[in-house]
């Protein structure tokens, strides 16, 4: 774990962490105007009011004074494609054309291990510069792309979830495998990387249209062989895609039901988009504790549809946020929160800033089943921490000057801020940005 040995850090500033679910508990946010966090050996040792630090822990600690900046847990992202960082902001296509025109050609380049490594490094630097310290990440079909990603994540000591895509039909040869190769390569990668340092593995069938029944069956088998790995995929993002799935799998009740048939739903299942769902789908997701990842900037950019967060929550389904770059248009959690707010407005639901920040920290960590390790400023938690400049632009500065409460301050950030607000990032107790 550590180059840091016994070195301790004492960081001060305003602090914010969530003790509870802000949808249920109006006092879920624990905000301290003059706060302090003590870190040692990659863990949070203590968090509270500056001045109250236990002397034995703070003595000799290196001091980082962040003034009136806001210290909070590192952001968590539930869905992003690292190989697509180079084709972010590609013009003019909806999902299936966008995949053919931009995504598959770019992903084809990742058979080259050096290209994969350079892209993974650049992607992780950009992700950290946006304050995100944990993400569920799609690689490409090439095992080299997953090795490259995990090597780069390991060198930064990050808590990351990732997996090689499986896809054995309806795509160019340069980005397809076979049911058997997909199974074998995934198994070897799980054995190599899952639980190695802070790395975690996700079995990653791209989506039902690019996997044969034999490949989906193999994914279900892998799920049953490894009971603590994740599975990530896409579901019901775009109406043409939903129609295509109905043609390819005529016996399935719905798109999500294809995955159910192969034993792929459950609490470790991270399903991206989930826009065009009927009540039976939502009931099935709630029953199986399957998780949905709402990717609002992507849904707007690709024109896929409007996810109904209130309806999904009311059905008892766990939701987190994802940026979905390159379909998504920003790695910034602020952009994702802003778009989630705007989309919720279409259904008359004002997503609160407390809910949005909770979704992007401890709520997201809970959805990833990592809520006992990351996402909170609390003793024993892994020391992934972000520090925000709350006045990072002139517009934000003049708006925050009028803020009457924490909600106003947080709302101004989620609507107006970007990576300029990221003053510092600590990953596993090491300062990696700022
Ligand atoms: N569905 C299948 N693959 C993808 C992808 O790469 N991005 C998005 N947004 N949707 C997908
Ligand atoms: Zn995606």
Helicity level: 25-40%
Could you name the CATH topology of the largest domain?
A: TIM Barrel
Q: What quaternary form is this?
A: single chain
Which architecture of the largest domain would the CATH scheme give at its second level?
A: Alpha-Beta Barrel
CATH class identity of the largest domain: Alpha Beta
The DSSP helix count reads 16
The pLDDT mean sits at: 97
Q: What is the assigned CATH homologous superfamily of the largest domain?
A: Metal-dependent hydrolases
How far apart are the termini? 21 Å
Q: How many domains?
A: 2
Rounded Rg: 21 Å
Q: Return the structural class.
A: alpha/beta
The number of strands is 16
- Portion of residues in beta strands equals 15-25%
Low-confidence stretches: none
Shape: globular
In this structure, how is the largest beta sheet organized? Answer: 9 strands, parallel
* Hetero ligands: guanine, zinc ion
Notes on the protein architecture:
The chain is α/β, with parallel strands linked by helices. The protein has two domains: 8-74 and 375-433, Urease, subunit C, domain 1, CATH 2.30.40; 75-331, Metal-dependent hydrolases (TIM Barrel, Alpha-Beta Barrel). It has helices at residues 55-58, 95-107, 113-129, 143-155, 179-193, 213-225, 239-248, 255-261, 279-288, 296-301, 309-314, 333-346, 353-359, 362-367, 394-401, 406-416, and strands spanning 8-18, 29-40, 43-49, 62-73, 75-81, 132-138, 160-163, 165-166, 199-205, 230-235, 269-273, 291-294, 319-321, 385-388, 422-427, 430-433. α5 (179-193) links the parallel β8 (165-166) and β9 (199-205). α4 runs parallel beside α5 and α12 packs across α16 (406-416). The mean pLDDT is 97.
């Amino acid at each position: 774990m550590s180059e840091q040995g016994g070195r301790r850090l004492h960081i001060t500033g305003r602090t914010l962490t969530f003790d509870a679910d802000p949808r249920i508990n109006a006092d879920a946010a624990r905000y301290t105007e003059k706060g302090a966090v003590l870190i040692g050996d990659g863990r949070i040792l203590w968090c509270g009011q500056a001045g109250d630090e236990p002397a034995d822990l703070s003595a000799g600690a290196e001091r980082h004074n962040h003034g009136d900046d806001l210290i909070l847990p590192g952001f968590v992202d539930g869905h992003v494609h690292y190989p697509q960082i180079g084709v972010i902001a590609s013009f003019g296509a909806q999902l299936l054309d966008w995949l053919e025109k931009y995504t598959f050609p770019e992903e084809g380049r990742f058979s080259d291990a050096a290209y994969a490594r350079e892209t993974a490094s650049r992607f992780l630097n950009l992700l950290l510069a946006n304050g995100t310290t944990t993400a569920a990440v799609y690689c490409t079909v090439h095992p080299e792309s997953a090795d490259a990603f995990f090597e780069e994540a390991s060198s930064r000591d990050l808590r990351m979830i990732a997996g090689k895509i499986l896809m054995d039909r309806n795509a160019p040869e340069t980005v397809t495998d076979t049911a058997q190769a997909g199974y074998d390569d995934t198994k070897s990668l799980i054995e190599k990387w899952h639980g190695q340092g802070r790395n975690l593995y996700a079995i990653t069938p791209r989506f039902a249209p690019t996997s044969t029944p034999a490949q989906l069956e193999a994914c279900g088998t892998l799920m049953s062989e490894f009971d603590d790995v994740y599975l990530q995929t896409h579901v019901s993002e775009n109406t043409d895609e939903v129609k295509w799935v109905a043609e390819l799998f005529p016996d399935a009740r719905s798109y999500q039901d294809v995955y159910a048939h192969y034993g792929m739903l459950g609490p470790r299942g991270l399903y991206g988009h989930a826009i065009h769902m009927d009540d039976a789908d939502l009931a099935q997701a709630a029953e199986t504790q399957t998780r949905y990842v709402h990717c609002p900037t992507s849904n707007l950019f690709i024109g896929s549809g409007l996810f109904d967060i209130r309806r999904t929550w009311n059905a008892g389904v766990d939701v987190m946020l994802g940026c979905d770059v390159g379909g998504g248009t920003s790695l910034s959690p602020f952009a994702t929160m802003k778009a989630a707010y705007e989309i919720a407005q279409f259904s008359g639901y004002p997503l609160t800033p407390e809910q949005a920040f909770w979704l992007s920290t401890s709520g997201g960590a809970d959805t990833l089943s990592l809520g006992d390790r990351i996402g909170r400023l609390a003793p024993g938690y892994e020391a992934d921490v972000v520090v925000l400049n709350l006045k990072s632009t002139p517009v934000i500065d003049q708006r925050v000057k009028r803020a009457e409460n924490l909600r106003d301050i947080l709302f101004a950030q989620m609507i107006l801020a970007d990576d300029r607000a990221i003053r510092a990032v600590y990953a596993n107790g090491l300062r990696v940005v700022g």
